[in-house]
Structures are given as structure tokens and as C-alpha cells.
Design goal:
The protein is mainly alpha-helical and 391 residues long. The chain is built from 16 helices and no strands.
């Protein structure tokens, strides 16, 4: 029977081919937790390093082997797939597993005779999951149901970065791909220069956003309705309970894993908009954010681990759109690898510049006057690539 004569409704014929693959994201904290339990059972500290090897070697290798998936959900199927509760359950499931691992990790740090090697592996294991947890909070924080937005802030508590909820939603999304945005990196700016700028700039921005909101309500900035203070209070409560249970020295472990988790978020921020710039019109108004203002990647494995965060252009165009229906755009500039593969490049600035600067130049057709350039290197970059074009 031909497709045209089939009585089956179109929506019943199409199934998400990645439906079961999305389980990889909530499975990640569960598997890391199992690694910690394997350490407790065997005493072998190598178990505390498995997740770090997966992040920096395993996922990039799988991205290379399995390639890219540029398929989009059919438009007539989008509403059905987006409303399917299965996908929301997978996001929510990450949170109790994340908290369980963090509590278990804190207990191990406080009670076991770890070597420095083992302690560092534990920091990277727990901090890595809490860093990935910021992406879970990112997915939840953009959604309309109030309980999801509250759960977003709960998810940020273990990594002590609750103000991200304020700055990302009401700061970054307005200023993305501009010199004023602390979370948009500039061509010629190394990750190590970007990191303090974005951490302190995002903190200051979040506080200013909340202070302005509260002023409109005729309330002081230091008020219990300040969402930054609410989020930081969750961290203080969580850390305080663990310190009372396990002793004050556990705070060193909690601070170290949080610092690493924050660095994972910010290296992803560094990758997402590097060198990209939204133009202004004659009146100084910013152009709307479009698919050309984010670096994208369709590498399969990184995308299922990160709720398709790598389809970042569609996210900026439709922040409330759920991860399972985010779209690929041909006009979006493409990364040579998934985010996991780009992390190590970002840590080594000469390699990063060698790989990514030519891509920025190509994206703008050789006209770097249209790119977001690091002010201290602007003239050098313009001269260098002008000479390269002449050659």
C-alpha cells in the first residue's frame, strides 16, 4: 500500500530515533556514582578517574566514530514530541542522581584515606557531574512551568552558581554576541583571559539585574525576594548541612568541585559564541539574534549527553523550546567537533587560535571588522588577516 493511501495518521508513523539515547544524560551521574562505589569496594583510586577519561577522551572518540546527525524533527510532529512527558522525566531524573553523587562524594572525601591523586579524581568526578548539571539547570530554567524554574535553581546549588539562572536568562540572552556580554568570548581572547572576565562579569551582571528589578518594586537589593540571594542561600544550606555532618574540612572538597564545575560551564560559554558579533543599525539598535550568532555542532554523542545544547542557535531564537526538538541550521557556523572535543583545544590557546580563528575569518568572508575582537589584539588581528588575504 502506498504512503498516500495509508490510513495511519502522519503523527503515528514518525518516532524519534534518539528516544532511548536521551537516557545517556541522566545515566551519566548514575555511572559516576557507581564508579565511586567501586572505589569503596576495591580501594582502587583509578575508579575515581574513569568519568574524566570519558569526558576528555571517550566522548570525543565516539563523536568522531559516529559522526553527525543533522536531521530535524518534522515540523508537523514538533508539538507532539515537545509535549511528550518522557523527555521531561529524563531531565528531572538527573537532579536526584546529581545530589546523591555529591553527598556520596563529600562523605568519601571526609572519611576515606585518599591520596592526593585520589582526592583530585574525586573532585573531577563530582565537579564534572555538577558542571554538566548546570546544563540541566539551563534546560529547566527556560521553561514556563514555575516548578521547573525552581528546580533549575536547586540544580545549581551544589556548584554554588545560582546567579547563573538570573544572568543567563535575563542578561546573556539579551546581549549575546556583543562586546558587552560577559559570556560571549572575543576572537583573540584566550580561555584563561575569558574565565575571570565571565565569572566576575556574570556575577556583577546578575546582581545588577536583580537590584534593578527589585528597585522597580520599591524594594532594596538586599531583600529576601532577590533571586541571587535565594539561590546562594540554597548553596549555604546544602554545604552547611554537609559540614555539620562531616566536619568543616569537607568545605574544601565542595569548593574545589564547584570551581571545576563552574569552569566546565564557562569553557562551553567560551566555545559557543567565540568571535561572533551581532551588528547594530544606524540608530545603534542590535540586530536580532539569528543562526549565524552561535557556533553549532551536530555530533551525535555530545548532543545526547548535553540535551542538544550544541544546537545553540535555535535555543537562542526560541529559548523556551525543549531540547528534543531543537533544529539544525545550514547557515550556522559549525564546530569541527562536539563540545567535549573542543574543551582540550580551549585549554591550549595556541591550538585553539590555530583551529578557530580561520573559521571566524571564513564566516565573515575575510572582513574581521564584522567580528567580535579582543580590544587589546584588534589591530594585530586585522593586520595579520589582511596580510593573509593579500597573500
Amino acid at each position: 500500500m502506498s504512503t498516500l493511501s495509508s490510513p495511519t495518521p502522519p503523527q503515528a508513523r514518525w518516532r524519534d530515533p534518539k528516544r532511548w539515547w536521551w537516557l545517556m544524560s541522566p545515566a551519566f551521574p548514575a555511572l559516576v556514582w557507581l564508579n565511586v562505589l567501586r572505589y569503596l569496594a576495591t580501594g582502587d583510586e583509578i575508579w575515581l578517574w574513569i568519568s574524566t577519561l570519558v569526558v576528555y577522551a571517550g566522548i570525543p572518540l565516539l563523536d568522531t566514530l559516529l559522526g553527525q546527525d543533522r536531521s530535524n524533527t518534522p515540523e508537523d510532529q514538533r508539538a507532539r514530541i515537545e509535549s511528550d512527558p518522557w523527555y521531561r522525566v529524563l531531565v528531572v531524573l538527573f537532579v536526584p542522581l546529581q545530589y546523591g553523587l555529591t553527598v556520596q562524594g563529600a562523605w568519601v572525601a571526609a572519611t576515606q584515606a585518599l591520596s592526593l591523586w585520589g582526592w583530585l579524581g574525586l573532585v573531577l568526578s563530582v565537579g564534572g557531574i555538577n558542571g554538566v548539571g548546570i546544563n540541566t539547570a539551563h534546560e529547566l530554567g527556560h521553561k514556563r512551568p514555575r516548578w521547573e524554574r525552581w528546580l533549575s535553581r536547586v540544580t545549581l546549588a551544589p556548584v554554588a552558581y545560582g546567579h547563573f539562572y538570573v544572568e543567563h536568562n535575563r542578561g546573556h540572552h539579551l546581549r549575546v554576541a556583543t562586546p558587552e556580554d560577559p559570556a560571549s568570548s572575543r576572537m583573540g581572547e584566550s580561555f584563561w583571559a575569558f574565565l575571570p572576565r565571565t565569572v566576575f562579569g556574570s556575577l556583577a551582571s546578575a546582581w545588577a539585574i536583580e537590584a534593578e528589578r527589585l528597585a522597580r518594586l520599591r524594594l532594596p537589593a538586599w531583600h529576601w525576594r532577590n533571586q541571587c540571594l535565594q539561590a546562594w542561600s540554597m548553596t549555604l544550606l546544602f554545604y552547611g548541612v554537609l559540614a555539620l555532618w562531616l566536619g568543616a574540612p569537607v568545605l574544601l572538597f565542595l569548593a574545589a568541585q564547584a570551581a571545576y564545575g563552574i569552569s566546565l560551564l564557562e569553557v562551553v560559554n567560551y566555545i559557543e559564541h567565540y568571535g561572533l558579533l551581532r551588528p547594530r543599525d544606524a540608530q545603534g539598535r542590535l540586530a536580532p539574534c539569528d543562526p549565524t550568532h552561535s557556533w553549532n555542532s551536530d555530533h551525535r554523542v555530545s548532543n545526547v549527553f548535553l540535551y542538544q545544547l550544541q544546537r545553540h542557535s535555535d535555543h537562542h531564537a526560541h529559548p523556551g523550546r525543549r531540547y528534543q526538538v531543537l533544529r539544525h541550521f545550514d547557515e550556522s557556523p559549525q564546530l569541527p567537533s562536539g563540545y567535549a572535543g573542543m574543551l582540550l583545544l580551549a585549554y591550549v590557546p595556541p591550538l585553539w587560535f590555530r583551529v578557530m580563528d580561520p573559521r571566524v575569518v571564513a564566516h565573515y568572508g575575510g572582513d574581521l571588522g564584522r567580528a567580535n575582537l579582543q580590544p587589546s589584539r584588534r589591530q594585530r588581528l586585522l593586520a595579520r588577516w589582511k596580510a593573509a588575504a593579500a597573500r
